[in-house]
Amino acid sequence: MRTSLDRSRKAIEIFDEKILEILWLRMGETKIIGKYKIKRGLPVKDLERERQLINSLIDKGKQMGMRSEVVESVFKAIITESCKEQENQFRENNA
């Protein structure tokens, strides 16, 4: 007999797997953007774009009842990894 705790834990496992899949898809788009930036000589970091994105996500998170600190922390980590991927592309392109 499954308890409600077991059901909730299983649901969270499924959500976590979906989050991973979405992050993998996002990283694929990051690579496409990296190639675009390399071809056009654009820098990896676009601080204005990052600020706009984070602020927009914080606003959406607030509407969903999420703390802004959590939203900001999660998406800053994602953006940092995206920039690292693009920096790797830049290094490989210049090697």
In brief, what are we looking at here?
This protein has one domain: Chorismate Mutase Domain, subunit A (Up-down Bundle). The protein has 3 helices and no strands.
Structural notes for this entry:
The structure is a single chain. The chain is mainly α and 95 residues long. It has a single domain (4-94), classed as Chorismate mutase (Chorismate Mutase Domain, subunit A, Up-down Bundle). Helix content is 85%, strand content 0%. It contains three helices and no strands. The protein has helices spanning 4-40, 47-63, 68-94. The radius of gyration is 17 Å and the shape is flat. The protein starts with a helix and ends with a helix. The mean pLDDT is 95.
Radius of gyration: 17 Å
The ordered string of helix (H) and strand (E) elements is HHH
Q: Give the structural class.
A: mainly alpha
CATH class: Mainly Alpha
In the CATH hierarchy, the third-tier topology is known as: Chorismate Mutase Domain, subunit A
* Number of self-contained structural domains: 1
Largest sheet: none
CATH architecture: Up-down Bundle
The percentage of residues in β strands lies in under 5%
Helix content: over 70%
The geometry reads as: flat
List keywords for this structure.
95 residues; mainly alpha; Chorismate Mutase Domain, subunit A; flat
